[in-house]
Write a structure and sequence with these properties.
With 434 residues, the chain is an alpha+beta fold. The chain has eleven helices and seven strands. Helix 6 packs antiparallel against helix 7, helix 8 packs across helix 9 and helix 9 runs antiparallel to helix 11.
Length: 434
């Protein structure tokens, strides 16, 4: 089961909701401080019952919003719109019970429009703007004058000027915080876009390699047939016996090439059939990976493969895609070649769960690799040091595992040789995005 890549807009809605949560937390603390300041210091007679109820509702909504942002389910722009409208209604209600349109903090309603300009679609932004206009108009029509105590310092100072001063301070703080959060969100989106572009380039390389392979397999049919006819004619001609033995060897090699090309079509049909079977049933991960390693040992009988399984792996049900099976086979081949190059015939595989991920560690008995080569291998196609190899194996393996949300890391093993660590996400940890 392959994870789908979310679009920058849908994936950024979680970040937008986090911004709204942080601004909401600042707003709640600011309201509480201002109410305490107005009541105790400025001796303003406020309807505390209503204000406490409104702030209590806002706190409950804030708790729900923090819970919501931690869910894997997508955050839609409709949810963001409701969040912004709820905050606007709470602010308008608090303003109504603290002076109405004469309260300078009424202009904080503009913050919702500023947030909506980059979080919402044009249609939703128009709705939010219309609601803000309605709220401002209602607050102008229905005003609730403030009641000042006898000892209030505002009796000798204009209330509106004091409010404008505090409002300016809060506006500077909110704009600064909002700007930093928005900048951070934009940088995260740019990072996601760069990652998607790199993945697209890698996918194009894989597609190009697949097209070239299919084309080469198709075009090889004609020259192989021609060589088979020529060799058959030569075999019936009058020539020394040792030459005929050589022609027989060449003819066997041609037949082997034909079988390899034929197997490509058979493997393609088998892969399609297995994908259909996997979509209809659950496969035990240990059983599937064990079968892959046993199939690999069939054509590498000279190798000794030691397997270590964590007990929890016995009950793990998860599909192992065909591409990942082939990737693991390629990495086993690399480990075997490294061990044989060092005169050893052993490799070791450890399978375990850690940090909500599946780990498959392949340890060879080779000579290890340099740190500079560790960073290069798998990221791009590299020239292979092995004869008659094109250097695409590790690149294809790495790309196949990355497509399912996994990762391949190469490092030197402390006991000698190379450690190839394959990390795969659990099925319930893969984020599937429409």
């Amino acid at each position: 089961m392959l994870p789908q890549i979310s679009s920058p807009r849908t994936s950024s809605n979680h970040a937008h909701l986090e911004i709204l949560n942080r601004i909401g937390l600042i707003a709640i603390n600011g309201k509480i401080l201002l109410i305490l300041l107005a009541t105790w210091y400025m001796q303003i007679q406020l309807p505390l019952n209503w204000l406490v109820t409104l702030i209590g509702l806002e706190i409950i909504f804030q708790i729900y919003s923090y819970w919501r942002v931690r869910q894997e389910r997508l955050v839609s722009t409709f949810e963001l719109t409701l969040h912004i409208l709820f905050d606007s209604l709470i602010l308008a209600s608090v303003v109504y019970f603290s002076g109405g349109a004469n309260n300078p903090f009424i202009y904080l309603l503009l913050l919702s429009i500023a947030l909506g300009t980059f979080m919402l679609s044009p249609k939703q932004l128009i709705i939010v703007s219309a609601v803000q206009l309605v709220l401002y108009s209602v607050l102008n029509i229905y005003q609730r004058p403030l009641e000042l105590g006898d000892a209030s310092p505002l009796n000798s100072y204009h209330l509106h000027l004091a409010g404008m001063w505090i409002n300016f301070i809060l506006t500077v703080i909110l704009i600064s915080v909002f700007g930093l959060l928005a900048r951070h969100s934009m940088l995260q989106q740019e990072k996601q876009i760069r990652a998607l572009r790199e993945k697209q380039l890698k996918d194009e390389q894989l597609l190009g390699l697949g097209i070239m392979s299919a084309s080469a397999a198709h075009e090889l049919g004609t020259p192989l047939s021609t060589m088979a006819v020529v060799i058959d004619d030569l075999a019936h001609s009058d020539m020394p016996k040792e030459y005929k033995e050589d022609l027989k060897i060449v003819n066997n090699q041609i037949d082997a090439c034909r079988r390899i090309i034929q197997s490509l079509s058979e493997k393609s049909q088998l892969a399609k059939q297995r994908v259909q079977e996997q979509s209809e049933s659950v496969t035990n991960f240990k059983k599937c990976l064990t079968q892959t390693m046993e199939n690999w040992l069939v054509y590498r009988p000279q190798m000794v493969l030691k397997q270590n399984w964590q007990p929890e792996m016995d009950k793990l049900d998860q599909h192992l895609p065909i591409s990942v099976e082939q990737a693991i086979t390629n990495l086993l081949d690399n480990a075997a070649d490294a061990s044989l190059q060092n005169g050893k015939d052993q490799i070791e595989v450890d399978c375990y769960l850690a940090k909500q991920q599946i780990h498959v560690d392949i340890r060879d008995k080779g000579l290890g690799i340099s740190e500079s080569l560790q960073k290069q291998l798998g990221a791009n196609p590299t020239k292979s040091e092995k004869k008659q190899r094109l250097g695409w194996g590790l690149f294809l393996s790495n790309a196949s595992i990355e497509r399912v949300g996994g990762q391949v890391e190469l490092s030197n093993n402390l006991e000698g040789g190379t450690l190839t660590r394959i990390t795969l996400p659990l099925a319930d940890q893969v984020e599937v995005v429409a």
